[in-house]
Amino acid sequence: MIAVKCDVRDPHSVRDAVSQCIDTLGQLPTVIVNNAAGNFVCPSERLSANAWKTVIDIVLMGTINVTMDVGKRLIAAGYSEQ
Predict the structure, then answer these.
(1) What is the pLDDT of residue 81?
(2) How many domains are contained in the chain?
(3) pTM of the model
(4) Is residue 54 a contact partner of residue 41, using CB atoms and an 8 Å limit?
(5) Residue 69 is part of which domain span?
(6) Counting beta carbons within 10 angstroms of the beta carbon of residue 48, is it exposed (0 to 12), middle (13 to 18) or buried (19 or more)?
(7) Would you say residue 58 lies in a domain?
(8) Residue 20 lies inside a defined structural domain of this protein
(9) Helices 62-76 and 11-25, interaxial angle, to 10°?
(10) Do 38 and 55 touch, CB atoms closer than 8 A?
(11) Does residue 82 form part of some domain?
(12) Residue 56 to residue 39: CA distance in whole angstroms
């Protein structure tokens, strides 16, 4: 198991982190823990539009960026659904 820090909102940062995992582990990950979250400790009605956008970018874009990067690599390597 390995933990790598990256900005999941940035596809290039995700690509580099996945590459680091592959370099360290010597193979593609076949399991990922894709659990990015962003939160602000304050009542919802006090969240600014920018704060809400940041939460959404981390949660939604982070999920798709990691899933797409790893998924495309697995497909290219010949992995398929079992």
Answers:
(1) 66
(2) 1
(3) 0.82
(4) no
(5) 11-76
(6) exposed
(7) yes
(8) yes
(9) 50
(10) yes
(11) no
(12) 10
Residue with tokens 């797409």: 68
Residue 82's pLDDT band (cuts 50, 70, 90) = low
- Rounded CA separation 67/70 (Å): 5
pLDDT score at 24: 94
The set of residues, in sequence order, having a beta carbon less than 8 Å from that of 13 and lying 6+ positions away, is 6, 7
Residues 25 and 18: their CA atoms lie apart, in Å, by 10
Average pLDDT over every residue of 9-38? 89
End-to-end CA, the chain: 23
Please, which pLDDT band fits residue 13 given cuts at 50, 70 and 90? very high
Q: Is residue 21 part of a domain?
A: yes
- Check residue 26 and give left, alpha or beta (phi > 0: left; psi -120 to 50: alpha): left
Tell me the two tokens of residue 16: 């580099």
Query: Which range, of 11-15, 28-32, 40-44, averages the lowest pLDDT?
Result: 28-32
